[in-house]
Amino acid sequence: MTEDNRQFRLSHRTELLGGDEERRPLKNAWPEVVGLTAEDAEKRIKEDKSEAHVQVVPPNHFVTADYIDGRVRIFIDLSGRVLKTPVIG
Questions:
Q1: Cα torsion angle, 65, 66, 69, 73, sign
Q2: pTM of the shown model
Q3: CATH 2.120.10.30: does it fit domain 3-75?
Q4: Can you list the positions of beta strands (E) in the chain?
Q5: Residue 82: is its pLDDT beyond 70?
Q6: What whole-number distance in Å separates Cα of residue 57 and Cα of residue 71?
Q7: Which of 40, 60, 86, 88 could be joined to 36 by an S-S link, Cβ 3.0–4.6 Å?
Q8: What is the DSSP letter of 69?
């Protein structure tokens, strides 16, 4: 499975909200924000997952390899645009 396919599957899962007819997307990835500014990307992510802890990561900055549920890292380029798909973890 390619990384793009994995990201699509992760970003299009659903969660049950109380009844079989009540489903909403369970967002774990936001491929649609690639190319946006960090601020716009954060707004879009917060619309889907308001409780997300968003971290903006500038170019060439060190990040830990740990997984934290609820954290979303936004990797940006020198112009402040999102470089790759932000994911939970």
A1: negative
A2: 0.71
A3: no
A4: 13-16, 23-26, 53-57, 71-75
A5: yes
A6: 12
A7: 40
A8: T
